[in-house]
Design brief:
300 residues; alpha/beta; Arc Repressor Mutant, subunit A; D-Maltodextrin-Binding Protein, domain 2; 3 domains; five-stranded mixed β-sheet; 15 strands
Length: 300
């Protein structure tokens, strides 16, 4: 039995949580999935999965073997892509992890353009704000907007994300409009819950300013904070790409126009520079080009 296919079946079963889900994704019968798993366990000489009617979990051997299986599939994909890239261009499936706001607001249409240019590729977008283990979770690329990369991460800086401080007209009519950054300390500011006591940083002609801010509503999601601001809940600092439509239609008002909030780097994080799939390299270049050409990512 094809050991590479058996390895792919094993990884899909783990990722999708059941043999049935893996069978549907791979367009195999459940019986065939079971046969591939049994064949792989026979080759390894140990059980890889605990199978019960309610739950599927990895054995110790399975847990140790899983990263090697992912690496084997990655290497096989690289070999296949290398063999055809001279004539057909990049190919293969890419798994991307990123935040919901970035994916919905900007990335999705860019991926559609990329897929149209490279029809032999496909993309699986995984949404989440947490740090991912690329190897263990089978992620080819993580796109993160941050100034705090983890040590030893392999990353490429793709551009800069500029932020804007804004509030609804109704809130400003009630609480007043701040003219200087330090006045924000006296306002109800909508902050990210995982930052604790938030400190908003600005640069302007007088020099850099840091302002501790707080309020009665926090969240770990951009959309929640923007909607709360639209409802008159307070002042928020959000990425310009996410706030732009609300500023354009007047639901939010940009504040402190003479001050520039601290920008964040847009980073592509991946496992290795030396073993990069042609499809991934092409996607990174494509995203970087689109960021450079989009006014939303240029300093205002």
């Amino acid at each position: 039995m094809d050991r590479l296919t058996a390895t792919r079946v094993f990884v899909e079963v783990v990722d999708r949580g059941s043999q049935t889900a893996a069978a549907e994704h791979l367009e195999l019968s459940r019986a065939m999935v079971s046969r591939y798993l049994a064949a792989l366990e026979g080759w390894v000489g140990a059980r890889l999965l605990h199978r019960t009617t309610r739950k599927l979990s990895l054995t110790q051997v399975g847990n140790e073997l899983l990263p090697h299986c992912r690496e084997m599939l990655h290497t096989a994909e690289m070999m296949r892509a290398t063999g055809i890239k001279a004539t057909d261009g990049p190919s293969g499936n890419l798994r991307i992890a990123t935040s919901q706001s970035f994916a919905q607001t900007w990335l999705s249409p860019v991926l559609v353009e990329y897929l149209a240019r490279y029809p032999n590729t496909s993309v699986d977008v995984l949404i989440g704000s947490h740090a991912v283990n690329l190897v263990e979770e089978g992620i080819d690329l993580a796109l993160r907007i941050t100034n705090q990369l983890e040590p030893n991460q392999v990353a490429r800086h793709l551009g800069d994300c500029h932020s804007v401080v804004c509030a609804a007209p109704a809130y400003l009519a009630k609480a007043g409009t701040p003219e200087q950054p330090r006045e924000l300390a006296g306002h109800n500011c909508l902050t990210y819950s995982y930052f604790g006591r938030s400190v908003w940083q600005f640069s302007g002609q007088p020099g850099p300013v840091q302002v501790p801010v707080g309020g009665n509503l926090s969240s770990n999601d951009t959309a929640v904070l923007l909607e709360a601001a639209v409802a008159g809940g307070g002042i928020c600092m959000q990425p310009l790409y996410a706030a732009a439509p609300l500023l354009e239609d007047g639901r939010l008002v940009r504040l402190l126009p003479d001050w520039q909030p601290q920008s964040l780097g847009i980073h592509a994080i991946y496992a290795s520079r030396r073993q990069m799939l042609p499809a991934l390299r092409a996607l990174l270049d494509f995203i970087a080009e689109r960021l450079a050409a989009d006014p939303l990512w240029q300093t205002r």
